[in-house]
From TrEMBL:
It comes from Aeromicrobium phragmitis. The lineage of its organism: Bacteria, Bacillati, Actinomycetota, Actinomycetes, Propionibacteriales. This is 2-succinyl-5-enolpyruvyl-6-hydroxy-3-cyclohexene-1-carboxylate synthase.
Length: 113
């Protein structure tokens, strides 16, 4: 269902066909730029804390990150990414009720982690 009345500027599609793979050189350039940014990060305590937290989680761990800057800081230093590691964060629910409730819910749902 559509969340509101569909006006003249709304079009519905029956399906979407993916295009061929993109330019591999563009991806490589983007990844190289990312590595340069990470290497240029200052040795600020906030990044050291984020790195320590990332390393402590473990490859198949569960990490709940607070909204706003903590998730951004972690995004800058989290290397290498792991498909097994589950990292969760709320978008817009950064209050004193939403953060603990979400973290507790994630922990209960993923008790084996």
């Amino acid at each position: 269902t559509f969340p509101g009345p569909a006006t003249a500027n709304v079009r519905f599609a029956e399906g979407v066909e993916p295009e061929a793979a993109g330019d591999e050189a563009w991806l490589a350039a983007w990844q190289e730029a990312d590595e340069r940014v990470v290497a240029a990060l200052p040795a600020a305590p906030v990044f050291e804390v984020a790195r320590a937290v990332w390393d402590a989680v473990g490859e198949d761990g569960l990490l709940y990150v607070g909204s706003s800057n903590p998730v951004r800081d972690l995004d800058l230093v989290a290397r290498p990414a792991s498909a097994a590691r589950l990292v969760l964060a709320n978008r817009g629910l950064a209050g004193i009720d939403g953060v603990p409730a979400s973290a507790i819910g994630a922990a209960l749902a993923q008790a084996e982690r």
